[in-house]
Amino acid sequence: MDVFSTLKSKLSSGNATIGIIGLGYVGLPLAHALHEGGFRILGFDIDPSKIEALAVGRNYLKHLGEEMTTTLSRSDRFRATADFSRLSEADAIIICVPTPLGKHQEPDLSYVINSGRDIGRTLRRGQLVVLESTTYPGTTREDLLPAMLEAQPKGAEKLVSGKDFFVAFSPEREDPGRKSHNTKTTPKLVGGLERESGELASLMYARAIQHVVTVSTAEVAEAAKVLENTFRAVNIALVNELKMILTPMGIDVWDVIEAAATKPFGFMPFFPGPGLGGHCIPIDPFYLTWKAREVGKPTRFIELAGEINTSMPHYVVDRLAAALNDESKSVKGSKVLIVGLAYKPNIDDTRETPAAEIIEILAGLGADVSYHDPHVPTFPRMRKHTRDLKSIDLSKDVLTAFDAVLIVTDHAAVNWRAIAQHAKLVVDTRNAMKGLGGLGARVVKA
To answer: CB within 8 A of 102, min separation 6: which ones?
Structure first.
């Protein structure tokens, strides 16, 4: 039996070992789904604390629950390791590593390239490699594959992609905290560097995910992913700009969106906020604009959306400063309580959170800043921000001690009524105070 047929038989039957590089927000739920599909799972991560946690069934991603990691830790079909020399044990390897932006908003593919090199050092005939990390079209073929091939040991037999081993792209579509869909129920796009690679990757995912959609090439799958998130970024920028236009007119943008959403066709509601957060929406459009420059095409529409969204923390601080000024106070010396450090409600994910940027701006203006977040007890070390802060508990005495409360994230666990009753001034970026007016606090929307 040839290499393709042998691997196809292993994947379709579930009699294969799947290696997953990166056991974070994408890799861990994927490992669980593939494990449920019957595969043996070998997880890889450079963070030893994750390996230790998984060995005892402790979930370091709270929104996923303890049951997931308990199931994995008790199974003889799951192991996690920091030993990347064991990549040769896997029949298929899935890369789920970060793809951040550099200092000048340029793509940082270092995690992808390093993973490719790790794979290349032990690459053997009959392996499938799938990249899930979000990136610009062409990355799998033009960046990952060369990194793998160049890392093959000197003197080793040179393997040929599409014949000896296979490579595909399948974009992650995780949305932490979402209840309506999960890894298993979210349709999976798959595109190979050639037909055989796409077919093998689709067979693998089909054992774990309800609906797999095979597209013609890896580039189509890569472009589809950046389109999904650019679509969201552009529409969020639109309502953010509308907020800045309608506010001085005395019109509530949330009321306008709610009214427009009554139309059953031709409109999809998006909501304004203090800025974008998470690993995808604030980053992916910049990957597309960077790639567009390579082919000499401008991306004015996308770049304008990026400018609007990245300016929102400054707009929020300006609204806060104006509200304090109405109270005959300056930002400098004022005590400001940030409510919500996570980038979205009801989770502990702080990646690219606009709250961190807002805290930096306020601190730079001389404000005394604290925060409350029931899901984030301690300010974590972030890519751009580090602060020695801990979440403070809310009480009447605490709330009355602050000059302003600034709502960044509308967690369900926050006592919004207490804020409305006891805070002096509330600057609300999420419409969290809807229906709570008149309880005591002065509410300003931002």
So the answer is: 108
